[in-house]
Design brief:
Elements lengths: L2 E3 L1 H5 L12 E3 L4 E2 L8 E2 L21 E3 L6 E3 L4 E2 L12 E2 L21 E3 L6 E3 L4 E2 L11 E2 L4 E2 L8 E2 L4 E2 L9 E2 L4 E2 L12 E2 L21 E5 L2 E4 L4 E2 L12 E2 L4 E2 L8 E2 L21 E4 L4 E4 L22 E2 L9 E2 L22 E2 L8 E2 L4 E2 L8 E2 L4 E2 L9 E2 L4 E2 L8 E2 L4 E2 L9 E2 L4 E2 L8 E2 L4 E2 L8 E2 L4 E2 L9 E2 L20 E2 L8 E2 L4 E2 L9 E2 L4 E2 L8 E2 L4 E2 L12 E2 L4
Antiparallel strand pairs: 1-2, 3-4, 5-6, 7-8, 9-10, 11-12, 13-14, 15-16, 17-18, 19-20, 21-22, 23-24, 25-26, 27-28, 29-30, 31-32, 33-34, 35-36, 37-38, 39-40, 41-42, 43-44, 45-46, 47-48, 49-50, 51-52
């Protein structure tokens, strides 16, 4: 049969004075191995093997049958037999008649179960003696298996018990394995039945688990782990010589070679098998994070900018896609470009470039996206933000939000600013609205201040222009929301800042745009008056008179408001 042996099984059985309890593993069905193999090969499609095979066959041997599409030859069950070579059906496994027996995988029913087995009660089945028991002879008994004594052990199906070797012991009957003495101790005896036989090494001597003797050095392929304790160099490394040094004496196997724990030299992989540096075995493919170098047939680490998550025989590792990067070698996957960065190239080896202000990206982006008009971002942003009220950004893409400046305003998220309308103003650089000009002031478009109307003019709040005071009204202050009416005895024209007096001989009512002459028969002797006074009897006046004229001597006027000299009548003689 074929087995896969551990490093100690292959490598250290050469040291007769340092016995080890090692074992070789049976290759499973569907695989095979050769002498000294450290791994099992899979059978090719269309061929088969049973467990422990050294080759694959195109047909199954007697006692076995093949399932359609499988790589394994399956054993006929205990109590049945199959004498057919190349069987492809379980129906070829025929039950034994009463008084005959078989183990699994038998070609013929026998009158007895073979040594190392027993009869399963009430059946035609043979079963292997359990580990820790043995049966040296063919039997028809259901109790043919006996316990191994203390100091001995057995594996399943044993015909004899094996003595516990130096460096080990078993304390009770029926042991399936011997217990190894711990590292730092040794037992030079065989067949030991107590842990007390494991004696501590003296200072300056060393041992590993299961040693028969303490040595003044650690073995080839080993190193000093701690005082009195040796350890095998890890798989993928070797040491050539006796040593009293630390793990630093273990040298790494180069690509294309491998080693198991405790190897004294690296083993070259077969032509069709590959390994990276520091490998414990060869494989038919390079492992993840490696690629197969065609010129040397060695597995090499994926270079920066590439990654490989699976076993492969490809001559290169896939390049990182756009939106991904990898700065180190030997990667299984590429790192995603973080949000706020992007790259459209493949195979990037450095961190992805940062998106500029006015652009953004999600993680894994191959390009930065533009923020729209009225929106911006800081460098390295994952999203955009609206420009604040009083700011704007005219176009999409790179750029930051700008202040509108005085005389303008904007709402949040604006692509342009709006001029303040006439009658409104803004005197700060960033504002969400314009302020109303007060009464008595005005402004034009995009004003940063309001202008006083001045004397003779007025305006309501929010005016784009001032209005002249109407005739009969005036304003004598720079800022005023209305004009005042001229008082009686005064007047004004358009845009007046004062009301002149009418003067003597004239009059006016309130809010007059001009003065009137006093009518004939009346007079006004003061500069400001809202009425004229009637002339009394014996007098008269013409239009615009400031005084009344007395009738001449020898004449009289018996009524008031005489309008001319003719109103004076001659006195009668006498």
């Amino acid at each position: 049969q074929a087995f896969v042996c551990s490093v100690r099984c292959v490598q250290e059985t050469a040291y007769a004075d340092v016995p080890y309890l090692t074992f070789c593993k049976v290759c499973p069905a569907g695989t095979y191995s050769g002498v000294g193999a450290s791994y099992c090969f899979s059978c090719a499609v269309g061929t088969y093997s049973t467990a422990g095979s050294s080759f694959c066959s195109a047909i199954c041997l007697p006692g076995y049958y093949a399932q359609s599409g499988g790589l394994q030859c399956l054993s006929c069950a205990a109590g049945t037999a199959n004498s057919v070579t190349g069987s492809t059906s379980i129906t070829d496994c025929v039950a034994c008649t009463a008084g005959f027996y078989t183990l699994p995988g038998s070609s013929t029913c026998l009158a007895t179960c073979p040594a190392g087995s027993y009869v399963v009660s009430g059946t035609s089945q043979c079963a292997l003696c359990p580990a820790g028991t043995f049966n040296p002879s063919p039997t028809t008994s259901i109790s043919a298996c006996s316990n191994c004594p203390a100091g001995y052990y057995s594996l399943e199906g044993a015909t004899v018990c094996s003595i516990c070797l130096m460096g080990s012991y078993s304390t009770s009957p029926g042991s399936g394995q011997c217990t190894l003495c711990p590292a730092g101790t040794a037992n030079p005896n065989t067949g030991s039945t107590s842990a007390a036989v494991c004696i501590a090494c003296t200072a300056g001597t060393y041992s590993m688990t299961g040693f028969g003797y303490c040595l003044g050095y650690c073995h080839h392929g080993g190193y000093v782990l701690s005082p009195k304790v040796c350890a095998n160099c890890p798989a993928g490394t070797t040491s050539c010589c006796h040593t009293q040094s630390s793990i630093s004496v273990c040298n790494t196997c180069p690509p294309g070679q491998y080693s198991g724990p405790g190897y004294t030299s690296c083993v070259t992989c077969d032509v069709v098998l590959y390994s990276p540096a520091h490998s414990a075995s060869c494989g038919t493919t390079c492992p993840a994070t490696y690629y197969l170098q065609a010129s040397t047939q060695n597995c090499l680490s994926c270079p920066a900018g590439t990654a490989n998550p699976v076993n492969t025989v490809d001559p290169s590792c896939p390049s990182c896609l756009a939106g991904y990067w990898m700065g180190s070698t030997g990667a299984a996957t590429c790192d995603i470009c973080p949000a706020g960065t992007a790259d459209s190239n493949t195979g990037r080896t450095t961190v992805c470039p940062t998106c500029g202000a006015g652009t953004y990206s999600a993680a894994g982006a191959s390009a930065c996206s533009d923020c729209g008009a009225g929106w911006s971002s800081t460098a390295g942003a994952s999203s955009c933000f609206a420009c604040s009220a009083g700011e704007y950004k005219a176009s999409a893409g790179l750029g930051t939000c700008q202040s509108c400046g005085i005389g303008k305003w904007s709402a949040a998220g604006s692509g342009a600013c709006t001029d303040c309308t006439p009658g409104y103003y803004n005197n700060v650089a960033v504002s969400a609205s314009c302020s109303t000009c007060g009464a008595g002031t005005y402004s034009g478009t995009a004003a940063s201040t309001c202008i006083n109307c001045g004397v003779g003019k007025w305006s309501a709040a929010g005016s784009g222009a001032c209005t002249d005071c109407s005739p009969g009204y005036f304003n004598n202050v720079a800022v005023c929301g209305s004009c005042s009416a001229c008082s009686a005895g005064t007047y004004s024209g358009t845009g007046a800042s004062t009301c002149p007096s009418c003067g003597i001989g004239k009059w006016s009512g309130p809010a007059s745009s001009s003065c009137s002459d006093c009518p004939a028969g009346t007079f006004n002797s003061v500069p400001i008056s809202g009425t004229c006074t009637n002339c009394g009897a014996g007098t008269y006046s013409l239009q615009g008179a400031s005084t009344c004229i007395n009738c001449p001597i020898g004449a009289y006027n018996p009524v008031i408001m005489g309008t001319s000299l003719a109103a004076c009548l001659p006195c009668q003689a006498g």
